Amino acid sequence: MIKKCIALCMLSLALSCQSSLAASVESQSQASSVTLDLQKSDMKVEYQIFDPLYNDRDEKALKQITRYNTLETNKQGIGYGNRDKPLRIVSPYMRKNGHGEIKLTNPVNIPSYRTRADKNKASDKEFKAFLEKNKGKSYDLYTTRTKEEIKESIEAVFKLIELIEYPVNNPKDYKLVATIPGFPKQIPSFAKNIHIHSNPGFLQGGSYVQLAFGGTPDQLKPYIDEARTDSKVIISESDLSNVYVKNHVDSNMEYADTLKTLLPTSIVIVESTTVPMGKYVQNLVDNPIEKSVDEIYELENQVLTEFNKIKIDGESSDAKYKRYIETRSRVEAERDILKLKQMDTVSLGKKEYPIYTESENRKLQKQYLHRLSFNEDSVKLPNDYVIYLFDFGGNWNHPYALGAAVSPEKNYIIYFCQRG
């Protein structure tokens, strides 16, 4: 009887354990399901970083982003603010994926610096190397330039303006922009719906280079694979505003920018008609380069004549430069007054430029630009595209981003390089 009771107790205990184990397994399964659901609602499946040593959920850094968070969440120590998704932090100094062979595109070997001091040190070294390389090529402010030197400097500026007003956007001219890191070495023969664009940075304007083309998923796969190899971050366009950039280890995140701020928001669409040449041709007539050379030569000589009337022993280089600028400003102001008096009798109506047919316009572009430049439009980058980021940095005022955007069907790819 006693043995029977013991056996029944053991059976009851076994059944109880089995029931508890089943409940535990079910509970773990439900928890796993909840975790999976949370991960799905957290970031899209495309979000990925490749540096195993980098913490993109650094709470200390997240809590510094005060202007993007509510006071209540900061008190809770969450630092995520009033959002439906948690924030993430990425950095230019993160390691890229690096797993894969690069054949079709240019290598991406851009140095990344963990601290601002390292960056400044590298910049100083680069600047000194530039000065050494260009030693003797720059002109001395206090020495008269020849007309030939003045002409060369004017032509260099005009060339930059020309590339902005008449951007490189003909696939036949891709060789002019084909050296950008991460970009294809050449446009593939299967490419369709091609849209390229390149304009240099000038004054306060930034530069932007783009190559976009389509193909079948199988045709684009090798290009997408290489983009993955070069990537530090892979992310859906719709998630860019949830990821913030920490440029250096010692950067303060209080006013950090999102990836959305640094990346281009639109795609350049190249049209079939060429950019009008009327203004270009008329400016050549109204402002021949020889006239500009003569005016600048005369101005510089007049400035130096006035400047050299005063000799100051022991004058510092800073004081000398300041005196030169003041002298030049005064001389220019006096010359401008004379020009205004000469213009009093001239009509200042709206300038009209000649209009050419498309055929005439193309002929003029080939004559003066030695290439064709087409009109452009732009469309918003779709938020279901996946971004492969090779490099990034800067801030909202001077953004920098290098990478590629791929359509969800993987049949269209847009390479971009933006520098603000």
Written overview of the protein:
α5 packs across α9 and α9 crosses α10. A hairpin with a 7-residue loop joins β3 and β4. 41% of the residues lie in helices and 16% in strands. The chain starts with a helix and ends with a strand. It contains eleven helices and eleven strands. The strands form three sheets. Strands 1-5-9-10-11-4-3 form a seven-stranded antiparallel sheet. Strands 2-6 form a two-stranded parallel sheet. The N terminus is likely disordered. By secondary structure, the protein is α+β, with helices and mostly antiparallel strands.
Low-confidence blocks of residues: 1-41, 76-82, 342-348
**Inertia-based shape:** globular
Major sheet: arrangement of strands: 1-5-9-10-11-4-3
Helix percent reads: 40-55%
List the helices and strands and how they pair.
Elements: H1 2-42, E1 48-49, H2 59-63, H3 71-75, E2 88-90, H4 116-133, H5 147-165, E3 192-199, E4 207-214, H6 217-230, E5 233-236, E6 243-245, H7 259-262, E7 266-274, H8 278-286, H9 289-307, H10 317-343, H11 358-368, E8 374-380, E9 386-394, E10 399-406, E11 412-419
Parallel strand pairs: 2-6
Antiparallel strand pairs: 1-5, 3-4, 4-11, 5-9, 7-8, 9-10, 10-11
Features:
two-stranded parallel sheet, seven-stranded antiparallel beta sheet, disordered N terminus, alpha+beta, about 425 residues
Summarize the entry for a quick read.
The chain is of the alpha+beta class and 420 residues long.
